[in-house]
Amino acid sequence: MTTNTPRSGRRFGGRVARMCSIAAVTLATAVSPLPAKADPAVSPASNSFSITGAGFGHGWGMSQYGAYGAAKQGLTWRQIVSFYYPETTQVQQPVGTTIKVWITADRDNDLKVLPAAGLRLRDSSGNVHMLPSGASYTAWRVTRSGQGFALSHRTASGSWVKRSTPLKTGSWWFSSTAKAVEVWLPGGARREFRGSVALVKRDSGGRTVNRVGMEDYVRAVVPAEMPTSWHPEAVAAQTVAARSYGARLKELARAGSGYHVCDTTSCQVYRGLAGTRSGRRAVYETQRGNAAVKATARTIMTYRGAVALTQFASSNGGATARGDHPYLTAQADPYDGVITSNRWSRTVSVDTLERLWPTAGTVRQLRVTGRDGSGRWGGRVTSVTLVGSQRSVLVSGATFSSRLGLRSRLFTLAP
């Protein structure tokens, strides 16, 4: 993915579904009396409705564009994260902290790696098997075999040959003296990961997991989540948010899963050190990103002794949303619109609404029936009523926004 547009830590409509999923169903098919503070009902014009909104993402925690705007106005990274996560404390993780990342692109239930200097295979008990090098060994593969694993090497002719090892049935980890391993993914692409890489048992198959130092993990995450060409203080703030976010997910990881975080927007994006496709190698880490990691070395945010869930999103539209924790507060954000406008608009046809909510019949009106109180227009939408010829349907603001592909829940309706 490109890094021209910042991403959302727990992106709207999908990030960290295991912690807080967004309902994908209507709240009810019969409407109760409308609350007193409901917006006026809007009728369509030219068979459509106009939606004007602000922000991009859920609005919890740090706004990435807001961090950029705050940095441009002279705030340091410490001041930025303190603004977006009030009442938190900045502490340092122990030296050598690691994290395990599920490499979701490797989905064929085995693990193939390319030769490297000092390549070795280790089991969970600490037994080590050194792997030979030379032209006869073009790749190495670990597959499931009964309750354990099997090792094969790929010959120069392209065939796979099984090899015996002294290793036990626990997870098998590849590592090298270069402290990086190159994984051969389905489809032929290759990805380089710092640390070690293992095939971890998953039912009768396995998932590829990268065990990497937390600082190296953040070096790969930050360029994927924010353009590192931005102001250094904003990039540093993103580094602290990403490191804390990873640390919190590590705390919440399910025992026995074999990993702490995934590498997609369902957690936060992690691509590793570099990748090669069609013979072209691209390095994902950046000099400015690495500088931000060094400047904030091992710093995370905590609240009352526990790692804070430092959620972040691209833009909050000028006001943060109240989250599930005391430090995810609803407050005005004077920095979010400094760099660029956070406004957006969308036209939605009546036909689209009728296709998405057919029980309403012919949609005659839309009405925002609930807001959270934080931000313009009275805050983010919590519920919308579709007034139809057959019935009125009450829909959550999250469902309405998700199904229509809106940039946020902070919006207002017009004909």
What can you tell me about this protein's structure?
The structure is a single chain. The chain is of the alpha+beta class. The chain has 7 helices and 26 strands. It starts with 47 loop residues before the first strand and ends with a strand.
Q: How is the secondary structure organized here?
A:
Elements: E1 48-54, E2 62-63, H1 64-72, H2 77-84, E3 89-92, E4 98-102, E5 110-113, E6 120-122, E7 128-130, E8 139-145, E9 148-154, E10 160-163, E11 172-175, E12 180-184, E13 190-194, E14 196-202, E15 205-213, H3 214-225, H4 232-252, E16 261-262, E17 274-277, E18 280-283, H5 287-295, E19 299-303, E20 306-307, E21 312-313, E22 343-349, H6 350-356, E23 363-371, E24 381-388, E25 392-396, H7 397-404, E26 411-414
Parallel strand pairs: 2-21, 4-16
Antiparallel strand pairs: 1-22, 1-26, 3-19, 4-15, 5-8, 6-7, 6-11, 8-9, 9-10, 11-14, 12-13, 13-17, 14-15, 17-18, 19-20, 23-24, 24-25
Helix pairs in contact: 1-4, 2-4, 3-4, 3-5, 4-5
Summarize the structure.
By secondary structure, this protein is α+β, with helices and mostly antiparallel strands. The chain has seven helices and 26 strands. It has helices at residues 64-72, 77-84, 214-225, 232-252, 287-295, 350-356, 397-404; strands spanning 48-54, 62-63, 89-92, 98-102, 110-113, 120-122, 128-130, 139-145, 148-154, 160-163, 172-175, 180-184, 190-194, 196-202, 205-213, 261-262, 274-277, 280-283, 299-303, 306-307, 312-313, 343-349, 363-371, 381-388, 392-396, 411-414.
